[in-house]
Amino acid sequence: MDPDCLFCNIVSGNIPSTEVYRDDRVMAFLDIVPAAPEHILVIPAQHLTFLRTADESHETLIGHMALMADRIASERGIRDSGYRLTVNQGPDAGQQVDHLHMHLLGGQKLGGVA
Ligand code: 5GP
Ligand code: ZN
User: Fold this and answer.
1) Nearest 5 degrees, angle CA 23-CA 26-CA 29?
2) Are 37 and 109 in contact (CB under 8 A)?
3) Is the CB of residue 89 less than 8 Å from the CB of residue 50?
4) Active site residue 101
5) C-alpha dist (Å) from residue 78 to 1, 10, 70, 97, 112
6) pLDDT 10s digit of each residue in the chain, 114 long?
7) Among the options 39, 47, 58, 101, which is catalytic?
8) Ligand nearest to C-alpha 91
């Protein structure tokens, strides 16, 4: 836990969020500025910043994030209609929060590549 990290504070409950999933490794909550009817952030419970700081010990965790994103998509009724998983890394991708997260987007036809 990094006390200065927004998403660590969401994991700990210090900052409120609309939680949609949690287990011992992963948490998911609604994005505060939704870019689609369904916009959920899937994050590791532990503070992990960028993929470049991850190593083999994180492979299972990152895979678990993707599988839980698919499960959440199913639970929220957007698996069959389709969804997008996005990971922003660094300035050119517009990354705002330095705690690894997957954007799960769906609920409408999504345009473009991002
Ligand atoms: P990034 O641009 O870093 O990939 O995505 C960060 C996301 O976090 C943005 O989509 C932004 O709307 C969301 N976000 C920023 N602050 C908060 C917050 O306090 N609560 C929630 N639920 N989402 C946030
Ligand atoms: Zn963090």
Assistant:
1) 95
2) no
3) yes
4) yes
5) 32, 25, 9, 25, 18
6) 999 999 999 999 999 999 999 999 999 999 999 999 999 999 999 999 999 999 999 999 999 999 999 999 999 999 999 999 999 999 999 999 999 999 999 999 998 765
7) 101
8) 1
pLDDT of 57: 97
Dihedral angle sign, alpha carbons of residues 97, 25, 84, 81:
negative
Pocket of ligand 1 (CB under 6 A): 6, 17, 29-33, 41, 88, 94-97
**Please, are residues 10 and 4 in contact by the beta-carbon 8 Å criterion?**
no
Q: Which atom of ligand 1 is nearest to the CA of 88?
A: 4
Q: How far apart (Å, rounded) are the C-alpha atoms in residues 94 and 99?
A: 13
Residue whose CB lies within 8 A of the most ligand 1 atoms, among 12, 41, 49, 86, for a mutation test: 41
Domains of the chain are: 6-106 (3.30.428.10)
* pLDDT for the residue numbered 113: 66
Task: Provide the residue count of the chain.
Answer: 114
